[in-house]
Amino acid sequence: MTKLYITFLILTFSIVLKAQIPQNSDADVLNLNKPERVEWFRDLGFGMFIHFSFDSQLGIVISHSMVGASNDYLDRYINELPKTFNPNNFDANELATLAKLAGMKYVVFTAKHHSGFCMWDTETTDFNITNTPYGKDILDEYVQAVRNAGLAVGIYFSPEDFNFLHENGLEVRRTNINDIPHHLMKKYLELNELQTIELMAKYGDIDILFYDGGEGPLVEKCKQVVWELHPDVVVTRGAMNTPEQTIPGTTLTDPWEACLTMGTQWAYKPTNENYKSGERLLEILIETRAKGGNQLLNVGPKPNGELPEEQEARLREIAAWNFVNGEAIEATSPWIIPNEENIWFTWKPEEKTLYAILTKQPEWPRGERREFVLRSVNSTANTSVSVLGQSDKLVEYMPETDAQTYFEQQEDGLHISCVRAQRIYNNHEWSNPLVLKITNAEPAFDPPVIKTIGAEIIRSGGATYIQFKGELVNQDDSENLEACFQYRPYSGSTNDFNSNKWQKSETVEIRDKTFMFRMRVKNEKNTYQYQTLIMHPKATIYGKYRTIEIK
Fold it and tell me: What are the angstrom distances between the C-alpha of 103 and each of 92, 243, 321, 327?
């Protein structure tokens, strides 16, 4: 498309939209996601997040260094730093191929982060990638490559725009809509409207949009525009729960998407980075899918466009696991409970196929047989059990070893005996989870439903206590239920996956479907994360996470 034609489209769409779009009040949160498209999105399960912008040259936090910065810093950041941005090794096709190998079904790319720098050829601002040594529309390269790979195309877009604030004499900070003069707010909304129209006009059907920043009128304007132009688009952040660097404490019935980094930073961080292991990333993915969510795993390319070696290595480890076990992640639903200790479940209800994913196993030599008991599962006359990726016929170099998987339904659960047979690495070691595929399975019980109620801070006799509360919402016919709480000091979701281990309270009595536990606190300036637990004869049932801050 020529720039003249794009300009014509933008003006045309803008005039039409002003006549058609209902104007929401500030308090309204618009959600026009189509239910069938949301289910399509949930089946995708796993996606790649790409945080990339010109400030990757410094290896610093993307965009946020502008907040509270001096005018000298902002001037050099906006006017000088783009002059040396040249990601000439960016290979969108290679990224798309790697994402596909890792089992990812969609990709989301930062078209514009909070800085306001646009990674496409836009007519709305000169603060964009075509005015760098790279000089090309990198977003177009990304869209074409992802689409050609058969993956869903997603765009991250920040309605919040620090460059706009700075250009218009406003302090650069996280947006406070009430502080922006009316005439500038109108201009701010128009910028976002035009950029949204431009993105929808230039790049064909976009499948997924992730809005971040500018909550309120800015985001609502963008959603109104995008759903008018493309009703089938799925808006994630802005229309569904999208926790960062954390996972809910239990299964959620509504759609949700957890986004997380491999290390501690979204954009490229060349030094002082602390990466999660490939095994840990797989465990987080498995837990996410077991609880009914999507996972958006982030990468941050180097300023020349290449992926850091550490990130590529982890993606290839995930790819190896996915090549064997991908069916346990894609197009699955939650089982009646997410897990039994370190065994996590995913479920395909139409096929009545259950996947039991064996995480955190002690070192498991090839050829060794182990036994597991699944208390939440009943077999039927047509049940079969196998290990994904294995033939169950032999173990390489071990002709005398019985590689068959056996199972037997007993009173306390489904007993399974299996062998780790497949050779994945040259040295025969492979620490990542095996997956049991159980066909024609049935639930063994109806799990109770519990609720984590808000805790209270109680000060008495010079001491401070937290009183945890829980509620048994409903239960099956089992009378042998025990309740307790687990808790830990909490430093925020950024560190959630590396936070302290849980501590359990003593068992407490359930009275009239409620239960409580009072804990004395030594450090009076701390935040705790906590959740309820019910010990059912078949499994432990978990409530949602909550936090309480002691001031």
Answer: 17, 21, 9, 9
Cα–Cα distance between 413 and 311 in angstroms, integer?
40
List C-alpha distances in Å: 107 to 41, 70, 89, 230: 12, 35, 19, 18
Chain mean position to CA 376: 27
Beta-carbon contacts of residue 359 (< 8 Å; ≥ 6 apart):
282, 283, 286, 342, 343, 344, 433
- From the centroid of its chain, how far is CA 242? 7
Between CA 38 and CA 34 the distance in angstroms is 6
What is the DSSP secondary structure assignment for residue 136, as one 8-state letter? S
Low-confidence residues in the chain, pLDDT < 50: 1, 5, 15, 19-27
In Å, what is the CA distance from 89 to each residue of 86, 93, 539? 8, 12, 51
Non-local CB neighbours of 118 within 8 Å, separated by 6+ positions: 111, 112, 124, 125, 127, 128, 129, 195
Tell me: the pLDDT tens digits for 524-545?
A: 788 999 999 999 999 999 999 9
**Which of 291, 282, 263, 262 is CA-nearest to residue 531?**
291
Residue among 382, 427, 387, 384 nearest 403 (CA): 387
Contact 507, 468 (CB under 8 A): no
d(CA 539, CA 250): 14
Q: What is the pLDDT of residues 490-503, one digit of tens each?
A: 877 555 666 568 99
Rounded to an integer, what distance in angstroms lies between the CA atom of residue 52 and that of residue 155?
12
d(CA 251, CA 255) in angstroms, rounded, equals: 10
CB distance 45 to 295 below 8 Å: yes
Both tokens assigned to 323:
């090549």
Tell me which residue has tokens 């769409």.
13
DSSP secondary structure letters along 158-194: -S--HHHHHHTT---SS--GGGS-HHHHHHHHHHHHH
* Separation CA 368–CA 534 (nearest Å): 34
Helix (H, G, I), strand (E, B) or coil at 219: helix
In whole angstroms, give the CA distance from residue 518 to residue 527: 16
Q: What is the pTM of this model?
A: 0.93
Element (DSSP H or E) covering residue 301: none
- Of 540, 521, 538, 542, give the one whose Cα is nearest residue 530: 542
473: nearest Cα among 376, 401, 410, 543: 543
Gap between the Cα atoms of 196 and 161, Å rounded? 13
What are phi and psi for residue 447, nearest 5 degrees? -65, 145
Q: Which two tokens stand for residue 251?
A: 């299964």
Q: How many CA atoms lie within 13 A of 491 on its CB side?
A: 8
| Helix 3-20 × helix 182-202 angle, to 10° | 120
Q: Which of 159, 124, 160, 117 is nearest to 139 (CA)?
A: 117
